[in-house]
Write a structure and sequence with these properties.
Layout lengths: L1 H9 L5 E6 L15 H5 L4 H10 L6 H11 L2 E5 L11 E6 L6 H8 L7 E4 L17 H9 L17 H9 L1
Parallel strand pairs: 1-2, 1-3, 3-4
Helix pairs in contact: 5-6
């Protein structure tokens, strides 16, 4: 997120940041949610707003700073469910939680990226919580394998990035 903000706000290389992810339900459905697409996506994209809060925690008015940067960087929350038919131009697109996407879903997203768009896919294979996917069948693995020889792609592997000792234990033992 910090890199996306740098590219949009500071360097002015892109027009906006679009953040999206798969929106599967983990438990019982909470039913119909009124509101705009962005308002409906807010619960699933809280990780992004959490990140923005951390980046601005030392500001005099952190909430005001987060709202300001969301407006300044033109941060938009979009549902992966409505990407068919789109052509996203001159944007930084952050596709979060890729480990829980299928190969088909990853392909759907990648083929919607238009001219001048940078796609950033993030995920952790140790945190797959889909009953239908494994580290081998995950869309994240599929994408990394298919793009390893593509000159326009790069992979960054992070080691030791965990939320807590509890999260680390769960990743290794569940």
């Amino acid at each position: 997120m910090a890199a996306a903000l740098e590219l949009v706000v500071e360097r002015k290389m892109y027009d906006k940041v679009i953040v999206t992810r798969n929106t599967p339900e983990i438990a019982e459905s909470i039913g119909f949610l009124p509101g705009t697409e962005e308002e409906k996506m807010a619960p699933w994209l809280a990780a992004i707003t959490d990140t923005l809060e951390v980046l601005h925690k030392n500001d005099v008015n952190p909430t005001g700073s987060v709202n300001y940067i969301m407006e300044k960087a033109n941060i938009q929350f979009k549902s992966i469910n409505f990407m068919r038919g789109r052509s996203i131009q001159n944007s930084v697109v952050i596709l979060d939680e890729c480990q829980n996407l299928t190969a088909s879903q990853i392909k759907t997203m990648i083929t919607r990226m238009g001219e001048g768009t940078k796609l950033i896919c993030s995920g952790n294979l140790a945190q797959i919580d889909s009953t239908y996917l494994t580290a081998v069948t995950s869309g994240l693995t599929y994408m990394v394998e298919r793009f390893k020889d593509f000159e326009g792609s790069a992979n960054i592997y992070l080691n030791g990035v965990v939320r807590s000792r509890l999260a680390e234990f769960a990743e290794e033992h569940l």
